[in-house]
Input
Amino acid sequence: MPPAPLPIDVALDLVLASWRSDGPHSEQTVARVGETASRFAARLSATGVATFALVTPADAAGFIHARTRGGEEPELATRHARRTAVRMLYRTLRALGQPVGDPTLDLRLPPRGLLAARPLTDDEVMLCRVTAQLGGESVARLRAVV
Output
């Protein structure tokens, strides 16, 4: 039988303590992500959500896309940071034995950068091969990389 979900404030305190004590995260990461997770928990409490297990994808999306304190639309980097904080929160909750999923699982955001990775064309592959084969000793070290 799975354990009963803890109230939001208790669960958040456990997560923050876990991040501070045994997490692989730096002090700065814990401070920044912890502040975002605390704002998420405060928003949930204000909307009447009692436990993290009751959070819906719409609740998570509402937080991630919420306007900033100044009333502006959040920057893309802010939305990515919020989603990352919520995902870290839920990953830790699961590690602590809480019966939760991840309400951000299907939440898609645009990529952060303008340049998307793409496969090389056949011509580009041939150019890489030729460069690796024709270079002198200065390129010899790079052959394995190329």
Notes: Residues 8-95 form one domain. The chain is about 55% helix and 0% strand. Residues 121 and 127 are 10 Å apart (CA to CA).
